[in-house]
Amino acid sequence: MPKQTRKPKWAEIGIFLCISVFFLEWASDFLIPLVAAFLGSLILRPVQRKAMSVGIPNGITAFLVCLAAGVAIVIAVWTFSNPISQLVNDLPAMINELRNTPNAAAETLDKIGDAAEAAQEAVAGKEDVPAMEVKVVENSSFLGSLVTSAPVLLGQIVLTIVLLFFLVSSGSTFERKLVECMPNFADKRATVQIVQTVAQKLGQYLGGITLINLGLGVVIGLAMAAWGLPNPYMFGVIAFTLNFVPYIGAIFGALLAAIVGFNEFHTAWSAILIFATYMALTSIEGQFVTPYIISNRLKLNPAVVFITVAFFAWIWSVVGMVIAVPLLITAKVLLDQSPSTRPIALFLGEANEQFKKDGGAA
Description:
Structural class: mainly alpha
Radius of gyration: 23 Å
Number of helices: 15
């Protein structure tokens, strides 16, 4: 008599999802560095292989990479902490000045100010602040908040760098051990294929996006310097960072540039043109540069991408928005491997080219 498989109940699935969401939020201080280190190791996979080809051991490569990462973080904090903290502290006053300007164009930008304020409160996790009131509290400065959260932030950075060192120095040991745990040859071969596909897709996406965002940051920094904004290099760093967040990052960066432009020139149309310049550059990057450079990337469902970004923003704040797309790519690649879960993968995005060739998507 054939063995009957037990079908899962919706109540069990709901309880499992609730527990998973709670665990993701509860263990965020550990999971965020872990995920960041894993994604960083995938970005550095080509560098690691290139170093091995010229005879440089993985341990030396890992040490040099982690040293460079630590130095870059120190330089970035030393260089950009003051201008960014000043911008965050001055932002409410800038928005109020924009609202009080008796100008038709400024009335249009009033809605932009509301959106910027709402985005700032959402990132900071302040749900009890009225949407139409902006109050500057002396004891709630950005620098003070940074000092308060410094121990946790420093611990996460150190943990990320240490985990990154072990992942890079171990080379392919993690993959080899994972394959050795499989019971038979078919499972071993399937595991190798899954690991290689995930590493290839994520490494391709993260490496390409990092280089593209670096170029975009340079271009936007030069554009803001041409407009005469103060600290234009700061907007280059902001553009580089926020562009890892699909859709929302570009809009939020353009809003910041527009508000600072209005405060600098006191002309609403200048702010609108600065906003248009920022959005035009990010649109060129999103519509032409990224599709051309990352030609084999996974094409994801835009609605699913937006929902994923919003969910991880709720769970892990700003860091969650950055890693949402890589996690979605990982989920799609894993779901693509099994015929039973491939319909879900097709809902997340277009079929993998490998399955198109094999006829798996037919």
